[in-house]
Amino acid sequence: MKQDMILILDLGSEENPRLAREVRAMGVYTEIHPHDLSQQALRALPNVKGIILNGGPNRVVDGAAIDASAAVYSSGLPILALDHKGQDTLPESGEDRERVLRGFVFDRCGAAANWNMDNFIADQIELVRRQVGDKQVLLALSGGVDSSVVAALLIKAIGKQLTCVHVNHGLLRKGEPEQVVKVFREELGANLVYVDAVDRFLDKLAGVADPEQKRKIIGAEFIRVFEEEARKLQGIAFLGQGTIYPDIIESGTKTVKAVKSHHNVGGLPEDLNFELVEPLKMLFKDEVRQCGAALGLPDSMVYRQPFPGPGLGVRCLGAITRDRLEAVRESDAILREEFARNGLEGKVWQYFTAIPDLKSVGVREGRRADEWPVILRAVNTVDAMTATVEDVPFALLQHITARITSEVKGVNRVLYDLTPKPTGTIEWE
Ligand code: XMP
């Protein structure tokens, strides 16, 4: 193993991620684990040089104060207790913290500053090989950042022992299913099962106008299709997942309640009986992107803007029809192309088109024609909780409008959404 590790045990602090990132900023890899880490689990962690017990306001669980297991105290490893009565405490901010932490990590633990993506990847490859042995692994590959990066890592680690399943539900952006096939099957040589489930999803969604109902149908149908593919394959023992650390936090830890259940954490039927392989689960989003870049994935995959799980399904407003779905997909492709050409691609946080379920009168080739409008949205945000609207140059908006109304079938108007969040949300439904 190439990297040293400082272990952070969660004793009720809300600052575990911040502390983990602080130590990583010093060049030393960290992992965050629950307070009751067993002796066996501790032994299985490679190259642990020291342990930080990170106490805090959530230290009392079910009426009793939690503590680390005896195995931790008797491990012989250097221990730093933060926010612990009678022991080291971490000052709020400033250099003194920095000093306490550096002293612990480098002087007391003797950790080396050898955390970088190449070392991380090398270590994860070794750990995955140890875990999987000669067994088979299955992975749902959506083409999003997390599943793409985990696929690339697993291909490097176990090659043909991995089978990726890409479900095309018909709600992806233009060119996305083709890119998944090209990158993973053709360039990386993966075992890739491509499932064309477009008709199946669109039939299930026919006539359904309620957005939450649409989301439920898309999520449930996805699991059904994936499960069917899994049952067709023989000898699968593991399920690869692109779980990342923020997913774990949002799903709740032993000291913090869940914000929301996450599709990467749980979700598949238990009788499938797979053990999970989750090599990215200690990484933050920006680190996952760095990992993908280090694995040689294209920038368009690694640095892509956020895209909702239900995809274009929540941008084709109301009951989805095939013609409006094509119109939203084509107009989105034009918007993306123009943003890339005009230097806005890496600058704007999220941009897309939506198509409402209404027509208005217009003129085409000298005749009245009832067609749909397309809505453009381009927003900036830090955490997606609030958002501001991008000040797109007017001439560019006019150019995009001209292209959409001439190139996209059935669209005669283009509207730019000027609403920040709040009062609008980022998506339209
Ligand atoms: P809103 O519309 O709530 O969106 O302002 C905030 C962020 O979340 C994305 N979003 C979703 N992502 N499934 C997802 O995986 C969904 O159902 C969903 N709805 C919204 C949205 O694109 C934005 O980045």
Range of strand content: 15-25%
Order of helices and strands: EHEHEEEHEHHEHEHEHHEHEHHHEEEEHE
Q: Could you estimate the helical fraction of the residues in percent? A: 25-40%
Main sheet properties: 5 strands, parallel
Distance between the termini: 47 Å
Helical segment count: 14
Q: How would you state the average pLDDT, rounded?
A: 94
Concise summary:
Helices cover 37% and strands 20% of the residues. The chain contains 14 helices and 16 strands. Strand 10, helix 10 and strand 11 form a beta-alpha-beta unit.
Give keywords.
429 residues, alpha/beta, five-stranded parallel β-sheet, five-stranded mixed β-sheet, 14 helices, 16 strands, 20% strand, binds xanthosine-5'-monophosphate
Structure overview:
Helix content is 37%, strand content 20%. The protein is built from 14 helices and 16 strands. 34% of the residues are buried. The site of xanthosine-5'-monophosphate has 11 residues, from loops.
Protein topology:
Blueprint: E1 5-11, H1 16-25, E2 29-34, H2 39-44, E3 48-55, E4 60-61, E5 64-65, H3 70-73, E6 79-82, H4 95-108, H5 117-132, E7 136-140, H6 145-158, E8 162-168, H7 176-187, E9 191-196, H8 198-205, H9 211-232, E10 236-240, H10 245-250, E11 275-277, H11 285-294, H12 299-302, H13 322-341, E12 350-354, E13 360-364, E14 367-380, E15 388-389, H14 394-407, E16 411-416
Helix pairs in contact: 5-6, 5-11, 6-11, 13-14
Bound molecules: xanthosine-5'-monophosphate.
